[in-house]
Amino acid sequence: MNMYSHTLTESDLVVTQSAVEKITSLVKDTSGEVSAVRIYVAGGGCSGMNYGMTFTETEDSVDSVMSNDEGFKLVVDPIALGFLGGAEVDYVDDGINASFVFNNVFQAVGGSGACGGCGGAG
């Protein structure tokens, strides 16, 4: 039986050093209970897609995986990967706000970020 297997590369998804360091810290804080982070994409209406991450303990046979020397894996399902191609995951901490940021996500889907006119006042 052939199993789908895909290793994420930088052409699929770039993870900045700042993001790697923060993810490493967060995974280590779980005391070994978690070894992977799943990146997901959810519909966001006029605002476009919503991108996020969550801890995971499972990898599905269709997932794409990026392993690293830091001791954690990034896991992405095929649908999310279709919206992430060429995107960059960064971690930004400006002293007031700190968050993961997904850059270049419109590159992956060819969008412009403009609202398509769903009937709301604009």
Please tag this protein with its features.
Hypothetical Protein Aq_1857, Chain: A, 8 strands, 3-stranded mixed β-sheet, 5-stranded mixed β-sheet, disordered C terminus, alpha/beta
Tell me the span between the first and last alpha carbons.
53 Å
Report the biggest beta sheet as strand number plus sense, adding barrel if it closes. 5 strands, mixed
Structural class: alpha/beta
Helix content: 10-25%
Based on CA inertia axes, which overall geometry fits? globular
CATH topology: Hypothetical Protein Aq_1857, Chain: A
**Low-confidence parts, pLDDT < 50 over ≥5 residues?**
107-122
Work out the count of structural domains.
1
The count of helical stretches stands at 3
Radius of gyration: 16 Å
Give the DSSP E fraction (strand runs of 2 or more residues): 25-35%
**What's the name of the CATH homologous superfamily?**
HesB-like domain
Mean pLDDT metric = 80
| CATH arch. level architecture | Sandwich
